């Protein structure tokens, strides 16, 4: 078939221009940088080398950061899922009609607030002089402020659960809603009680929603830097490593190589999730 | 001691808000019987099935299986199984896993599960599809899987909620015969719900006709078709000519009726009083082309319309008595629109529509 330009192709121009300007040009720039010859304090020169990639992928330090990042990302995903699933189940299966959807819209409102401000709010709750410590002190449960909730990995996970909750509830709600009611009846008819119905029918059929929640939470976590920096204490993730290399160390080629490596890992992870967790069932 | 019926409904009543879905339903189903609950949509037949399956609770009345009241037994503990209207097969499981579902939940040993699934798959001729995904099956094959999934559990009562609805006519006919074969070979008790009277005729031992939540007639389909007791039942099962008539004379075994312009002789029914107005019915196929001398159970009329239906032809004609009647003749009769025909029928084919 011969492709010819027609007047309708004009409609594609704004989108193409937008993507080109804000998506492809920056990425291509970063790809180009990643092959430059690196050095700290902004002393990097144009050129072509694989040195940055080799350093990033073979360094013991970055490997550890990678492992920690993946562990934190996975724990955050699990924690969010444990909180979001019962909420989504309640909204989708217990509430009738569109009530559940309206409540989800309410859940989106806090997201309108600035991201950093939300994280700072958590400092007031989790901090040494924060709400939780004051409460526990007042009740006499502890004698001096505990630090377990602040400047720790747990604090990072708590804040992520809060931030990511709507992103998990929404896809779970949609999948749970799309399961035909009579499948539950059929399961009951064939001898399943509520628990058995949940594990044999509801949970397997909500896998696409879990997969989407995974993508929404796990993937951004790989590049997250603000939460660990503000509430994480010693928690140092891939996002922090890249930010430090760009802003503090000033080694742009190395930081760019790290970014591109991360991008490729993310793409592979997303591809696997899409392929093996039945995400396509959501829109087929 | 006599064995109790496989399924018994006693005064089952169900209301949704102000709407009565079921009113005082009492019905007994023998073991090994294929009973069809026949009714138009909204008649309450699906509600009745849900009450038997345990998905709805009756407001009043009892549901018994083999003599035991099961009103408070949840669906997953009832010895019933339902084939759902849209089948409700599990899309994340393959054919084998779908059929094995109930057995796995009941923790049957692995060998027993395999043996039973194989048995059900062979019974329904789907043994070659056992590893397929549900989405790879045709409508008819899905029917078979849904049926097998229930049959492996050997339920005391199998409930079928219009499972053949979405199939095309030819496949439906095939499945009707297939269902009947399976039911006969298992000697199992089946309760089948449909709105299609032909389907009911093909398959059932007995039919229960439901309308607006009331059970109007229960019995074998031939009796109900030929001797319905109400106009609704008569019309629901096929076409008929209805007349309103006054009882003019009740003699032994016979009743003389006057529609105002036409005299009818009918078999008498107990309780008829001279002078009362009643409804009568004559099925179109009972009307014969014939000349009769005496002015009873006969008519003469001009043909208005012909509908060719293969083996027979439906003839609509306007009679000298001022009625438009429908008669069904074999297609070999040569009749044209505008012809004048003379017809007659015998007394036993004039059916008085009265339930008590």
UniProtKB/TrEMBL annotation, chain A:
The chain crosses the membrane at residues 12-36, 65-91, 103-121, 153-176, 197-219, 254-274. Residues 66-273 form the ABC transmembrane type-1 domain. PROSITE patterns: ABC_TM1. GO terms for biological process: transmembrane transport. One of its GO terms (cellular component) is plasma membrane. Pfam families: BPD_transp_1 (PF00528). It is found in: Cell membrane. Keywords: Cell membrane, Membrane, Transmembrane, Transmembrane helix, Transport. It is a multi-pass membrane protein. This is ABC transporter permease. It comes from Caldiarchaeum subterraneum.
Automatic annotation (TrEMBL), chain B:
Belongs to the ABC transporter superfamily. Sulfate/tungstate importer (TC 3.A.1.6) family. The complex is composed of two ATP-binding proteins (WtpC), two transmembrane proteins (WtpB) and a solute-binding protein (WtpA). Pfam families: ABC_tran (PF00005), TOBE_2 (PF08402). Residues 7-237 form the ABC transporter domain. SMART domains: AAA (SM00382). Keywords: ATP-binding, Nucleotide-binding, Transport. It comes from the Archaea. This is Molybdate/tungstate import ATP-binding protein WtpC. It is an enzyme of class 7 (translocase). GO terms for molecular function: ABC-type tungstate transporter activity; ATP binding; ATP hydrolysis activity. It catalyses: tungstate(in) + ATP + H2O = tungstate(out) + ADP + phosphate + H(+). Gene3D superfamilies: 2.40.50.100, P-loop containing nucleotide triphosphate hydrolases. Its EC number is 7.3.2.6. GO terms for cellular component: ATP-binding cassette (ABC) transporter complex. InterPro entries: AAA+_ATPase, ABC_SmlMolc_Importer, ABC_transporter-like_ATP-bd, ABC_transporter-like_CS, Mo/tungstate-bd_C_term_dom, P-loop_NTPase, Transp-assoc_OB_typ2.
